[in-house]
Amino acid sequence: MLKSDSPGKRFTWLPVTTLASGMELRIPVHIVTGSQPGPTLGITAGIHGDEYLPLAVVREVVQQLDPGQLKGTVIALPVVNPLAIETQTRHTTTDMLNLNRVFPGDPHGWLTEQLAAVVCEQFLPEIEYLIDLHAGGAQPIVDYVYIQNDEGMSRAFGFPALYRPAHPYTGTLTGVAQDHNVACVVVEMGGGMLENDLYLARGVRGIYNVLKYLNMLPGTPEVPEQQTVVTEMSVIRPHKGGLLYPGVKFEDIGTVVPRDTLLGTVVSPYTFDVLEEIRAPYAQNLMILLRPAITKVHPGDYAYMVADAASA
């Protein structure tokens, strides 16, 4: 039982297992219990180990929250996958599995599946709402909210671009949470080691917006005058590996560019030849994820995500 009737802040751990090194694998949990009754909001970060900004957002929120102003409870898991955080990878290197594709997990399965099972068995039954925080990783930056089963909560987070997929990924934490009748929102923000202060502030404000939307805090959510909901999005991956020179920069995130706009150029670091030009596929392309600096890319890496602006 993670929740408490006593107002205040508390820290604990969810034990998972013992590793071959003898170290205990466990998930950190921060609980903020309000002075008045209300719903329970879960916040998760660190499902992928190369996404650092969400951890900082959770830290700021937990430190800033005043239990005296809060109705209900906030349960935050800032590092859902400690092993991936340690190795700075999207997957668990022990079994090479992506945690956010194996939920609800298996207590008798691979290590990553055991980790997922603990989250589903001990965390999800405690919450009614969930914000799952992600970022673009070590190199790309990203900026949108992924609509799940509560569009109002997704809009309340306050990002200009929202995506409603026709076919959501399977094996995700929020997919299983919805099976538990938990209202969910997935936030993709920042990354790439750039503009962290901007996205840190936006992430904290977004969580406070949701707390206000749920009447867990006083006040009204601060949302943009215009929000765009798109239903068609493409992940653009290079066919060649090398150095990716950006054709679009940080300031282009969230803007619309026309068909055939040069998004990036893959160059051989050995011969200096141009190996590939990556161009915008739609008539009007809403820039959702991009690489704003020169980076190494492998064939098949996430390079860009663009939404079809006509699908709004």
Report helical residue fraction. Answer: 10-25%
Low-pLDDT windows of residues:
none
Q: Sheet bearing the most strands, described?
A: 13 strands, mixed
Order of helices and strands: EEEHEHHEEHEHEHEEEEEEEEE
Strand percentage, roughly?
25-35%
Fourth-level CATH superfamily of the largest domain: Zn peptidases
Q: If you average the pLDDT, what whole number results?
A: 97
Structural class: alpha/beta
Global shape: globular
Q: Output the radius of gyration.
A: 20 Å
Q: Can you describe this structure?
A:
With 312 residues, the chain is of the alpha/beta class. It has 2 domains: 8-213, Zn peptidases (Aminopeptidase, 3-Layer(aba) Sandwich); 232-311, OB fold (Dihydrolipoamide Acetyltransferase, E2P). The protein has 6 helices and 17 strands. It has helices at residues 53-64, 82-87, 111-122, 151-156, 173-179, 196-213, and strands at residues 8-18, 24-33, 36-44, 71-77, 129-134, 141-147, 161-163, 183-190, 228-230, 233-236, 242-246, 256-258, 262-267, 274-279, 284-290, 295-297, 304-308. Strand 6 (141-147), helix 4 (151-156) and strand 7 (161-163) form a beta-alpha-beta unit. Helix 1 crosses helix 6 (196-213). The termini are far apart. The mean pLDDT is 97.
